[in-house]
Design brief:
single chain, alpha+beta, five-stranded mixed sheet, 13 strands, elongated
Length: 344
């Protein structure tokens, strides 16, 4: 069994208000922020809207439904440009005049613009944790923010913003960056109140928006030339990190490591900086130092043997980096450790 619903989206708040009206329930209105909680017969969760200036807003839907939920956005009006980031389970979308639905999975973003006669259709599966973060841009109102930059826009960017009256349908699906995923969580978990909350949320929404536009242009480059790390590449970065720990004595170059996991060097470096806060070589150095310390504490290996085990060619270099990190040489560290054991 499924439920069908028609929703207006002239601005972010219209989504919440028309949904509440269609469901016959109330919504909360906190000026720039509106909330509607789903009735129990539909499931659990809410839809929130954030309406900022110049046609810029956010709609955040977070719910688990008891039935498959089919809804469409009303015909006969100019719909906002939508950047829908999926941070939950799969959903499906199509424009009415398109033949097939598009499946949108976790960590994917759908950029979509409809026309007054070719409206949006969504299918949200039941018993799934749906979590959609949508940036909504009324391009006619938003023009005042970007009018000074329209002449210098890349062709790809112009496609997004120059159709002010929404007469050209447009869809694009890609994977969004790990950093955008972090920003979305920061937006959702904001604990501020009043004016500070408004300022923070608007700034964070724009940070997400600008970061995606940079990524959108990056997507048009050849794969080996891309520089922005995507969320769906996280598992490859973590696999590379495990590989480094397990193969320290014989590691390939950074380029060889990138090739092993099917990534460009730029993406590999960007992934390590996003997840671990350091470059690949900095990560390797850090793991080597931790391993050196562990071997000094838990083994009887000589310094020369430890040098080989952590993939270094010089015992003096090992002593140098260990001294910089721990303010003592490996020999001094091992001696102090043994003295402490004897005292204990």
């Amino acid at each position: 069994m499924k439920k069908k619903l028609s929703v207006k989206d002239t601005d972010a708040h219209a989504v919440v208000k028309s949904m509440a009206s269609a469901l016959g329930i109330d919504y909360l209105d906190h000026k720039y922020e509106c909330i509607v909680d789903l009735p129990k017969e539909f499931g659990q969760g809410s839809v929130k809207s954030y309406d900022f200036k110049d046609g810029f807003g956010v709609v955040h839907t977070n719910y688990k439904l008891t039935k498959d939920f089919h809804f469409e956005l009303a015909k006969g009006m100019v719909h906002p440009l939508k950047l829908i980031f999926n941070v939950g389970n799969v959903y499906h979308h199509k424009l009415e005049n398109f033949e097939k639905y598009t499946e949108i999975n976790f960590s994917e973003v759908l950029v979509v613009a409809s026309t007054p006669g070719n409206n949006h259709h969504f299918i949200i599966p039941s018993q799934a944790d749906s979590d959609l973060f949508s940036i909504e841009v009324n391009r006619k109102l938003f023009e005042s923010r970007i009018i000074d930059f329209t002449e210098e826009m890349d062709a790809e960017m112009a496609i997004l913003f120059r159709d002010l009256n929404g007469v050209i349908p447009f869809t694009y699906k890609g994977s969004f960056s790990y950093d955008i995923g972090v920003m979305i969580e920061e937006f959702k978990n904001c604990g501020l109140k009043g004016m500070n909350r408004y300022i923070y949320l608007e700034a964070k929404a724009y940070e997400i928006f600008s970061s995606f536009l940079e990524q959108y242009l990056d997507d048009f480059k050849k794969p080996d030339k891309r520089s922005i790390f995507r969320q769906n590449q996280t598992r490859f970065i973590k696999q590379a990190a495990v590989f480094i720990k397990q193969n320290m004595e014989n590691l390939p170059s950074v380029q060889g490591l990138a090739q092993k996991f099917g990534l460009s060097v730029n993406i590999l470096q960007g992934g390590f900086r996003s997840i671990y806060g350091m470059s690949v070589n900095e990560y390797i150095q850090n793991e080597r130092l931790l391993r050196i310390k562990e071997l000094l504490e838990q083994s009887e290996h000589s310094i020369s043997e430890i040098t080989y085990l952590v993939g270094l060619n010089s015992k003096s270099y090992l002593s140098k980096i260990f001294l910089e990190r721990y303010s003592m040489t490996p020999t001094e560290f091992r001696s102090r450790m043994k003295r402490n054991e004897g005292t204990n």
